[in-house]
C-alpha cells in the first residue's frame, strides 16, 4: 500500500464481487481481536498447536486469496487503528507463514 493510501485511509483495489465478503471478514477479525485475541498461552479450543487463533488464520488465508499481501497489510492496518499495537503484534504472529506475510 502506498503512502497516499496510508495517509488518506484508502485500501487496496478489491474486485466488486469480493467487497461484501472482505467487509465481513474484517469485521469478524476485529471481533476476534476484541473478544478472544489472536494468540493464546496454550493450545486448544479455538487455538492451534502454535497457539494461533484458527479462525483468524483462516481469515488471513482468505484475504491472501482475494487480494494477496496488499489486502493483508490493509487488514493489519485496520486492526492497528481500531485495536491498538499490542493486538496488532499478536495478529502478525498469528498470520506467520500465510502467503508472503512476514511478521
- What's the overall average pLDDT, rounded? 90
Q: Termini, distance in Å?
A: 16 Å
* Distinct helical segment count: 4
Portion in beta strands: under 5%
Question: What is Rg?
Answer: 13 Å
Tally of strands: 0
Short account of what is shown:
With 103 residues, the protein is mostly helical. It has one domain. The protein contains four helices and no strands.
Give a description of the structure.
The model is unreliable at 1-8 (pLDDT under 50). The protein contains four helices and no strands. It is mainly alpha-helical and 103 residues long. The longest helix has 30 residues, at 54-83. The two termini are 16 Å apart. Helix 2 (19-35) crosses helix 3 (54-83). It has helices at 3-8, 19-35, 54-83, 85-94. The protein has one domain (14-94).
Top keywords for this entry?
single chain; 61% helix; 0% strand; 103 residues; 4 helices; mainly alpha; disordered N terminus
Q: What's the SSE blueprint?
A:
Layout: H1 3-8, H2 19-35, H3 54-83, H4 85-94
Helix pairs in contact: 2-3, 3-4
